Amino acid sequence: MTDKLHIAHFTNTYKPNVNGVVRSVSTFREALTRMGNLVFIFGQDADDYEDTEPFVFRYPAIGIPGFDYSASVPASNFVNKLLPSLKLDVIHSNHPNLIGTAAANKAKDLDLPLVFTFHTNYVEYGQHYVPFGKAFVEDIIVDALVRYIRRCQHVVTPSDSIKQYLEKYGGITERVTTVPTGIDPAPFQQADGGPVREKYGWGQDRVLISIGRLTKEKNWGTLLSAVGLVARDHSNVRLAILGDGPQRKELEEQTRSLGIAKNVVFTGLVPFENVPNYLKAADLFCFASVTETQGLVTMEAMAAGLPVVAVDAPGTHDEITHGQQGLLTENDSQALAQAIDQVLQDESLYRRLKAGATEKAKSLDMMIQAKKMVDVYEQAIEDKKANRFVEVRDDRVKAN
Predict the structure, then answer these.
(1) How far apart, in whole angstroms, are the C-alpha atoms of residue 210 and residue 205?
(2) CATH homologous superfamily, domain 6-182+366-385
(3) Which is more confident, 288 or 134?
């Protein structure tokens, strides 16, 4: 296929929200647009936010008490009238519900191929917010996910770990492709961390950095406990946490309980264009989350030349090979602390991991990943013409 594509991305969360899905959608949009394709975004309404990019259309949304997100209401006469005029080639859904449901319905109504990216490990997230056993939650979530996937021509997973999960529990072995989001390496390579170090008075301190929403599923408590152990022997160690969320006050209290309040900086949300400068200001990227579907912030850290110490978990270990770009540990604060201490103490190890991280980042360029996504779209278009959908095996594994 030589013609440039008209692509509609449907997402429950887009700018001004700051999270992995928004980063993925916006990054692919930028890369696909550079290739000459036309990408339309259909996201949630955002009060008091003015879009600076073209072709972003909003569904109504309702704020959720206690959360910094809103629930989309996938009903819009304007969108209904607009879609046929866009001459779309493919609809790309980033969620299996709400606006994702609208995406599937529109694909059916307009006879268009539907591609779905499985961004989020909904089972792991459900464990933190749904008061039922894991097996019960997993069966319900996976069954709903499978019903949605049956409506698609292709499924995209951001890492091989998630692809393997879908194969085992979803029974999906065909028309599923791993396409990581990718990064634009230039801002990270060109960043200047000097002003950030000066702002916080870090001087000759050894600075650890981590990025993410301040929520339970990100496992911040384990990281803070690890830093508490490291700080016993390294008084000049600092931790910068970029992000915000409902657990912030609890985590700030934990730093006081551990006696490391002076060692930890909660920066709050940092505009993405300034994140590379923060990464460049640091010496080591540390990460404890066990719910990632891809190592996006880890990839960005490597692009800034940072070695990584992280809990060995899906998403993270898809990008980090132990001993090459960083060290991976058990989900345990003592193990994480020992690995951090090892990297800080062993200068030759530090230099080797730093070089490995920098080299690995070269393969994660967003333009490389966007070309893979175009291949997915073209296959989905051909499958739709032949009336082929994603197939699900009947012998898929049920949760225990």
Answers:
(1) 16
(2) Glycogen Phosphorylase B; (3.40.50.2000)
(3) 288
